[in-house]
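thoughts on these tokens:
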Amino acid sequence: PNSSASARLSGIAAELNASGFSNIAGWYWSSTTIAGNPTYAGIVGITNGHVISTAKSNTYPYIWPVRAGQ
């Protein structure tokens, strides 16, 4: 995600929890493969909007299902 998308994610966990979702926290996979290292992808901190990279073989980041046009 770009910096604009990351900024929108910052603090969204509290809003989602207040809207009826539960246990929203932690790191979520992005769809971005890291340039120059196809075995790594970006992950986004849902509470702070930070983006870091990690090996695609890691199992700890969560996924967030989305659909186009919504």
Notes: The longest strand covers residues 37-45. The chain has a mean pLDDT of 81. The radius of gyration is 12 Å.
